[in-house]
Amino acid sequence: MKFGGTSVGDVARIKAVSGTIRSALRPNRKIIVVVSAMSDQTNKLIELTKDLGVEGTIDPEYDALVSTGEDVSASLLALALKKLGIHARSWRGWQLPINTDSFFSNAKIKSVNTKKLIQSFKDGLEVAVISGFQGVEANSRITTLGRGGSDTSAVAIAASIGSERCDIYTDVSGIYTTDPRIKRKAAKIKKISFEEMLEMASLGANVLQTRAVELAMRSKTPIQVLNSFSNEEGTLVCDEEEIMEKNIISGIAFQRNEARITLSNIEDKPGVAAKIFGPLAEAGINVDMIVQSSSETGNTDLTFSCSAEEVEHAKEAIAKSKDLTYKNIIVNSEVAKVSIIGIGMKTHAGVAQKMFETLSEENINIHVISTSEIKVSVLIERKYLELAVRSLHDSFELEKI
Amino acid sequence: MKFGGTSVGDVARIKAVSGTIRSALRPNRKIIVVVSAMSDQTNKLIELTKDLGVEGTIDPEYDALVSTGEDVSASLLALALKKLGIHARSWRGWQLPINTDSFFSNAKIKSVNTKKLIQSFKDGLEVAVISGFQGVEANSRITTLGRGGSDTSAVAIAASIGSERCDIYTDVSGIYTTDPRIKRKAAKIKKISFEEMLEMASLGANVLQTRAVELAMRSKTPIQVLNSFSNEEGTLVCDEEEIMEKNIISGIAFQRNEARITLSNIEDKPGVAAKIFGPLAEAGINVDMIVQSSSETGNTDLTFSCSAEEVEHAKEAIAKSKDLTYKNIIVNSEVAKVSIIGIGMKTHAGVAQKMFETLSEENINIHVISTSEIKVSVLIERKYLELAVRSLHDSFELEKI
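Output (structure tokens, whole complex):
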């Protein structure tokens, strides 16, 4: 069971969470809990680094400092559980240990040592509360896992110890067919495959972190997304084979602030793509869709998309690229990406066509198309984003999912 | 260098402390810094346990929780030092490790492993910042050292690594001949022996913790008490042999809220003291002075003192003691203890006599007297405490120290 920052936001919430855990206990069931920092606590720590003028520094001290937030909530939750008569204790990353590489502020988990954990369960422990978001590197320094790291901690521990499931408690009730703020009739998905969830996560449905879903997929650890503020049924993210009735389309994801960059009249010969995307990668720019139209004249246009925030940065990187000749660079920072996602696409033809027709009926022009086995993404004018999401939701009848 | 809670009370103070450390750096000098939690930080953590209803619990989780306060200030100070271009890093108790026993909330340091510390200095580290007040026990759980634990951490580390000195920065400028709030002309002592300091510390001069002084004495580690808010010269606490001109009297200590308990007509035979002080020790009562007057009738009176707060508790413990016969129990909760302390007493006669005369001249009646090689303590009516301290300070000419 993993509880995020708002779920353990204050002492009253920590007490509530201890009740939720107690309800989940059964004879012969052991529970591992992974906690984030109390939402307020992390802000206070970051505030201190701001005052010191070292905010966001990549430095082992920063990891050591920020990781104390999770330690505080882990110990408080263990105390709350013990107050309920439950045999509980807290574990920090280094105490297991959770071994990571040495990329401070963005470390990757290399292994979770579950030996002590298993022994303590044998010795009668009922609930182990583990600080999320942290680990320890080879020189015994504390590392943090980067954004959404506690989800990754939870899945990594669940996978390492062979948990039956990893329940992730958040402030939403599950994964929806699309953002309910845009389409009020968005439906909660009961079961979704890892592959679909991965597309949903990376395409802007911010409930689960991509790294956590990837890890769950590799280890085949089912994730259940639940609301810590209610008892509603959540969403199970699991292996495709465990989903009997596969939806053709499971959901519609989107990214609002995208930009399209077109280089016109570039040479159509081997190596030219490397001249463009090499410098962009070096500059740390996340290039998303790439479309190149071939021609017979030996010259062609190349279009790619990236986050609107990164446009200026991307233009600079291209300007620096040597030996790259092009006629014009055309930028449109007013586009958005909409994607339909579903494992059913693998076996159903005509899904992309239905998407294009739906958008066409609304007079929405498509700038760029890109597809994978289980998704179709299009770049459209940003002002049509809501209209596109709603009409696609209707035409694929997602409210009935 | 050890900095207490007020010395690192906020980010501005942490910056100031980083400047103090920089000024102390010299070529070929390495500095170990021990920090307490930012004063506010500890209060906030304790507030959380209050809200949870587990305040003051003896529980490993409580140690784990509270110890995060020191971790926060250690990392912040390391970041501040690095910002000044100083090669610094933080260490937590478990990272060295600082090994303790398993008495949570009041653990004792068993050993400080300085191997990693020495290696890191060899590798170019200039300043090591270590979380005070904490250690780790045999099962890798975090322990805290109890009240004033950071002083003990500092002295233990200094002793283990063979530091030339342990500088303790506080919010006062050193050790004074007596409390300046009572005697305005109290003088700062330049040098004081460990033995004297131990008497001063345990008798109510709350600048240094007794445990820390004991440890310094055993390891012959000089302690310098300094003010982190000013550049004044402080007080050096050192071996008696390093003090050339020994004062007959170094200071006057006192404890305001004492109680005197007299059991009249107890049997004057072996084992009776055990019947009284056994139960008191079991009840956790700190008995201070004990006076027994012998008699020829086979019956005698026994008087002892303890903190006024503990009187009721002490009476209960005595009432429970089996086979103890006495006529009356007479309690006076309105007494105070005044002590004169000085290593010069060892070689100078008449010091006690001069104390008694001084008090007699002020018409202050003495209830109980107890002496050691380097101190004389008396119990007097509490209302005369200030008068006694002032007149003793004058008659021993301590303002000229």
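The interface with chain A takes residues 10-12, 14-15, 45, 48-49, 51-54, 57, 59-62, 64-65, 68, 71-72, 74-76, 78-80, 82-83, 89-90, 92, 94-95, 140-141 of chain B (CB under 8 Å).
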